[in-house]
Design a protein that fits this description.
Helix content: 25-40%
Radius of gyration: 16 Å
Mean pLDDT: 88
Order of helices and strands: EEEHEHHEHEHHEEEHEHEHEHH
Strand order of the largest sheet: 1-4-5-6-7-10-11-12
Low-confidence stretches: none
Distance between the termini: 26 Å
CATH superfamily: Aldolase class I
Number of helices: 11
Number of strands: 12
CATH class: Alpha Beta
Number of domains: 1
CATH architecture: Alpha-Beta Barrel
Length: 248
């Protein structure tokens, strides 16, 4: 599977207790709710999304995926028409392969990849090109366990290491700007992009169409957008058109 042959704007469908939510700086209890995940997914598909970014927030915090039924319903509803990438609470290779069997196109590993880097190779050996490693950075350091624990890892160095282990893509989230609609940290993204040859998907802080274009110019292969789309700061189509206009 070719990942992101052209720059993509990917809507986030973050799920907590069976509902779509968007958190501020990844903190529990800060979430605003946006209804049913299947309805959200279908809405983004109609709006022109080619990929959907699903996150089990309960899984990310608790280490157990509890929104499986919601995600199965999303894959059933849109899996034929859009690529689906899913993260949050995936802790074992069996877990990941089970989700890929379900129809998920890419699994996103965060805490598990940091605690057990070999898991990346184990899944990739069974399902090539299916693993995206999520590196969440806070004050320039990779953090895990729902953004609560520091690791001492530099995001660019970590990205390089996971590429060597078989990751097909990196998801880089800047937690410092996550969910606040205050703009991106382009330099942090460029450092990770420059470190690897695999696609880097950027996430966190997108507040305006200009941020989307800036991330594309920074070398990101795609950008995940949550709060800004749900709050109507701009539409998916507006973001896609801005990127297309820049290409011409």
């Amino acid at each position: 599977m070719t990942h992101f042959p052209e720059f993509e704007v990917i809507p986030a469908v973050d799920v907590q207790d069976g509902e779509v939510v968007q958190l501020v700086q990844g903190e529990r209890g800060t979430g605003k709710r946006y209804g049913d995940p299947v309805e959200a997914a279908e809405r983004w598909l109609e709006a022109g999304a080619e990929t959907l970014h699903l996150v089990d927030l309960d899984g990310a915090f608790e280490g157990d995926r509890v929104n499986e039924a919601a995600f199965e319903a999303v894959v059933d509803a849109v899996g034929e028409e859009a690529a689906v990438q899913l993260g949050g609470g995936i802790r074992t290779a069996d877990d990941a392969v089970g989700l890929l069997d379900l129809g998920v196109d890419r699994v996103i590993l965060g805490t598990a990849a940091v605690e057990n880097p070999e898991i990346v190779g184990a899944i990739s050996a069974e399902r090539p090109d299916s693993v995206m490693v999520s590196l969440d950075a806070k004050e320039g350091e990779v953090v895990v366990s729902g953004w609560t624990e520091g690791t001492g890892l530099d995001p660019a160095e970590a990205a390089e290491r996971y590429e060597d282990l078989g990751a097909a893509a990196i998801l880089f989230t800047n937690v410092d700007v996550e969910g606040q609609l205050e703009g991106i940290d382009r330099e942090a993204v460029e450092r990770v992009v420059d470190a690897v040859d695999i696609p880097v998907v950027a996430s966190g802080g997108v507040a305006a169409v200009d941020d989307v274009v800036a991330l594309r110019d920074a070398g990101a292969a795609a950008v995940v957008v949550g709060t800004a789309l749900y709050e109507g700061e701009f539409t998916l189509r507006e973001a896609q058109q801005a990127v297309e206009n820049e290409r011409r």
